[in-house]
């Protein structure tokens, strides 16, 4: 890596063209291309995507260029940033996730990743799946974890896991002595329902409706965390996703297997048109690996 290579990189980024960069530097177009190729080899990653005569900078190139422009620093600092980008140690990642997984599971994953990547910056947003899909489509976040697949053409959805819902009861409830709670067992029980804006509400209601099991639905909670508070106060029983049960360990609440199965899906949502960024790809892979372990643990309980 040398000053001439960096000057060529700056000129191409500023002009958007190898030809115009050559004119700025008073050298030929092939000479600029050679300097850029040498600079890419020094950095250890691609700086431009080439389609015919058109070139488009990668996200790594933009990050490196911003550092050069902001600081006007020497070759040594530029080499340090390039090395950090290559090793996925520098940059920013933004993630949107549904509330249950954003509360405890994902922060633990994020921090584990951050400890190994001290120069990265991270933004985690908790949002409902519909808003999350819109945010990914608009590329306001790099990717999302949702309980619903994306329904917009701008995103790609990958199914990750399917988890069984659980029944939560006050610890002293007679049904808490059972290992498994069937929907029929909850006939005429005071039931804490989730709000209509929660997609799982419809899945849970459908189970009881199909079995013609009547419940006393006196209380409606906007979020599963609130439902746990009502159950802990002995206001009723509820059916929730297992991630929320993991988040809300409370001696006042008994968590039991529920039949018939109410299944909760986890989807990875990524923008279809987003440019690849090594740090984001690395964090996605790390997250999926940790979620595999987490899902296996939940399934075993």
TrEMBL record:
InterPro entries: LysR_HTH_N, LysR_subst-bd, WH-like_DNA-bd_sf, WH_DNA-bd_sf. The keyword rRNA-binding does not apply. It comes from Azospirillum endophyticum. Belongs to the LysR transcriptional regulatory family. Keywords: DNA-binding, Transcription, Transcription regulation. Residues 1-58 form the HTH lysR-type domain. The lineage of its organism: Bacteria, Pseudomonadati, Pseudomonadota, Alphaproteobacteria, Rhodospirillales. It comes from the Bacteria. This is LysR family transcriptional regulator. Gene3D superfamilies: 3.40.190.290, Winged helix-like DNA-binding domain superfamily/Winged helix DNA-binding domain. SUPFAM superfamilies: Periplasmic binding protein-like II (SSF53850), Winged helix' DNA-binding domain (SSF46785).
């Amino acid at each position: 890596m040398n000053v001439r290579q960096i000057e060529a990189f700056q000129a191409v980024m500023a002009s958007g063209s190898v030809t115009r960069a050559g004119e700025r530097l008073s050298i030929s177009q092939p000479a600029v291309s050679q300097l850029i190729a040498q600079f890419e080899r020094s950095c250890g990653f691609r700086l431009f995507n080439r389609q015919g005569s058109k070139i488009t900078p990668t996200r790594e190139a933009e990050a490196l260029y911003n550092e050069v422009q902001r600081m006007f620093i020497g070759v040594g600092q530029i080499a340090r940033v390039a090395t950090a980008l290559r090793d996925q140690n520098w940059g920013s990642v933004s993630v949107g996730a549904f509330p249950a997984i954003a509360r405890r599971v994902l922060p633990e994953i994020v921090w584990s990743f951050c400890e190994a990547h001290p120069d990265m910056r991270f933004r985690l947003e908790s949002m409902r799946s519909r808003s999350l899909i819109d945010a990914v489509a608009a590329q306001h976040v790099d990717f999302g974890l949702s309980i619903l697949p994306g329904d917009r053409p701008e995103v790609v959805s990958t199914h990750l896991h399917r988890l069984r819902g659980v029944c939560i009861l006050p610890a002293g409830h007679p049904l808490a002595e059972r290992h498994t709670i069937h929907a029929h067992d909850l006939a005429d029980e005071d039931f804490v329902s989730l709000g209509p804006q929660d997609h799982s509400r419809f899945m849970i209601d459908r189970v009881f409706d199909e079995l013609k099991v009547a419940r006393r639905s006196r209380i409606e909670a906007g979020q599963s965390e609130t439902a746990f508070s009502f159950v802990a106060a002995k206001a009723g029983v509820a059916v929730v996703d297992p991630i929320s049960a993991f988040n809300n360990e409370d001696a006042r609440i008994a968590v039991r297997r529920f039949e018939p199965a109410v299944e909760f899906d986890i989807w990875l949502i990524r923008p279809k048109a987003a440019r690849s960024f090594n740090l984001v790809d690395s964090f996605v892979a790390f997250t999926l690996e940790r979620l595999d372990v987490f899902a296996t643990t939940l399934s075993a309980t």
